[in-house]
User: What shape does this take?
Amino acid sequence: MSLPTLAAFADEFTPATQTELARFMADNFSTRQRVLYPVGGRTALHFGCPAVEPGVAISTAKLTGVIDYPARDMTVTVEAGIRIETLNELLSHERQRLPIDVPQSHRATLGGIIACNAGGARRFGLGTLRDYIIGISAIDAAGTQFKAGGRVVKNVAGYDLCKLLNGSLGTLGLITQVTLKLRPIPEATRWLWASFASFQEIEAAFDKLLLSATRPIAMEVLDATAAVQIAADARTSLPTDGPVLGLAFEGSAREVAWQIDTLQAELKLLGPRQVVITPDAEADGLWNALTEFEVTAEEPLTFKANVLPSRTMEFMELAAREQISVQAHAGNGIVIGHLPDRVTTAQTAAALLTPLRRFVRQYHGNLCIVNSPEAWKQEIPTWGESEPSWPLMQRLKEQLDPLDLLNRGRFIFPAPVPMDQG
Amino acid sequence: MSVSTPAVPTFGLDVLRRLREIVGAENLLSQREELLVYECDGYTIEKQVPDVVVFPTTTEQVVQIVKLCNEFQLPFIPRGAGTSLAGGSLPVGGGVMIALTRMKQILEVNLRDRFAIVEPGLVNVHLTQRLKGTGYHYAPDPSSQGACTIGGNVATNSGGPHTLKYGVTVNHILGVEAVMPDGSVVTFGGPAEDAPGFDMTGLFVGNEGTFGICTKAWVRLTRDPAAYRTMLGIFETVEAATQTISNIIGAGIVPAALEMMDSGIIEAVEAAFHFGFPLDAGAVVLIEVDGLEVAVDEEARTIIEICNTSGAREVRQANTPKERLLLWKCRKQAFGAIGRLSPSYCTQDGVVPRTKLPEILRLIVESGKRHNLRIVNVFHAGDGNIHPIILFDERDADQVQRVLHASDEILEACIELGGSVTGEHGIGVEKISFMSKLFSEADLATMLKVRLAFNPTGLCSPKKMLPTAGACGTEQQIVKTGVRAAM
Assistant: This one.
């Protein structure tokens, strides 16, 4: 893996307050108009297209204040530079949480994960970040501070810019402060894993489980290679004699136990090869390994594909046949894949990805590159194939950042002609 | 709060002829007496008759109507069932009203991928009925679900009594097909989640018709709960009831619904339906937990315990599905019962942090006294979403004025308590003057830029959502005059 875009980030500004940042950005806008690259915990600098121009990295490292935590209202307002681990620690004192699975949570910041729309296995039962952000403050490229939403859990006043900024890769505004809706921490969490002879058999199982008496909060599928890696990272054992299906339950100890029993009985009829229930002592490690899988980047290229849930097993089979190790949040049709070590050039990577791309396009999806050597990104479209709604997104970008100062060239918009850096 | 007559010339017969060619004579209304039905929605305080109402039956017809409006520079506005309580479908800009009630097909139900594709005019409850027995449902169920349309729900990001656990409309919309204000058709999102790019679906939901016209929606289907436990807590005072709600949430339980009714509404409901509610109670709270059979009993037990230790006079439990439906009937039909109390009523919609409910309810009582108005309350207590219902007689101009004053006072108090002026009804025309109290000039300028990306000419739903020239005197100097006039 190369170290992308670092050259572009040679200059760095770390404001102590949101006001100081706004002033800096206003000044930049009216004078030098340098390109600004927001950075949080630096866990996703590889994400997106490489920066092509030198600019200023804007670090939120000092914007870490807890503004308000009215626990009884189950909301929290914090500055965007707060690290996820710190936030989780704060919330756990009130037995509450933001139920989003975040890789490298000891480094990742709230603003950063919002910009990248991070998430993991829990999304099946608990939704994604967009469902938890109820208020947001940001600074646009001209240095104007703006906000949307508020601090209450239900609010339809004004346009929902929380949704717009979530997943916008810092291209519309620098996120400075966020209000989140929270959930209680459940009493228990438990995984059940079952291996099957083939991906088709897992798809058949999904069909039967549509009306399961249980209510899993995560539905993961791993190919055998991914299962071996995740089991090793988690220091737990998973079945690895074929593709493996994992279902997670959370809730009171009693309801989790009942669901594990019930699911075991339901599964018996579906012919799994091996069934493993992860011991409680190993559950945290397993959650962690599942969440970190997408950033264990010793592999040459990591992608994320989205496809119809009912086509996910076909997609995984197609990928696994090429020794791509794959993890799917299968209930949501999200697949993360690592290309095998034998792939050493952009050309072979592109060739391997072509049939996968064709497949996802057929079923309403796309395929994005999460991580690869920077040079490869010239040949493999980082953000997948363009969608008909992209021109409208471009108009939004032009409205909010007319000089294209924020994360220029790193998102879905066409790479610009480099500007004179006077 | 009067609305000025639109500065749009009444259009000529050629426009009418061409509209008729697009939708057919049977799908167009242009006679004054026919148009009167469309002079207002559920917000009856302001009225404005549209110039013409068309009822397209296909996306292509919507495209042609919108293109025609662009050709003649006519404002246009979408309308669902007209259940908005904030004047969301009031045609303040005049022009062409595009009623989507004849586009009401369920195009696809896909249980395996947990979505349905529906047309915008589909009545919310019709989707519920269609899904009955499948094991899946569409979660958002606004109290008006028997009439309101999915397209209208998308436009206003509607809520309902189950949002505490299940979220609002936006949490259940996967994608939208929309006719843009220039007549082009764009699809945002769809059945595969997490498409690269901005979350346009999330942004589009709640746009109140100002970004374009929703012609199709991909909605998320949710697994049915296996079991329910529905309880009714009876309390001496509103304070005791709100404290109990806070304690339930504090115990880590997220009920499916926490709905409160105060003594005023109890009286009306009791007179209408004879449920046997104690008329001397200060408040009753409808509490429902849902989930697995094995879980709900435990939760219900804890809730009853909390109610009792927090000063409930009594907790009743629905023991059969029939008893449960009866409890819900009294909640959902509470509005219908108000007809017994007064000829007209105005339902307000404000939000405060849940823990501030006692304060806001006290302020509502004071406001009612000050303006000599009767105000009753039935609302989503779990979300802090209040619905004070102000009773009045719309034939009495002085009363109408007092209603407006009381509404303003209550909403301003919501802002002061850290809340919002609308939790689910939307800004519409009713609350446009509050936008500049809730948001800074810079916030509104940013929102206006977002709107300009979708709707640069301002012909689509003019004078809605953002305060601009002509709306309640809260003009913001935020864009060029030319654009402002057009919006």
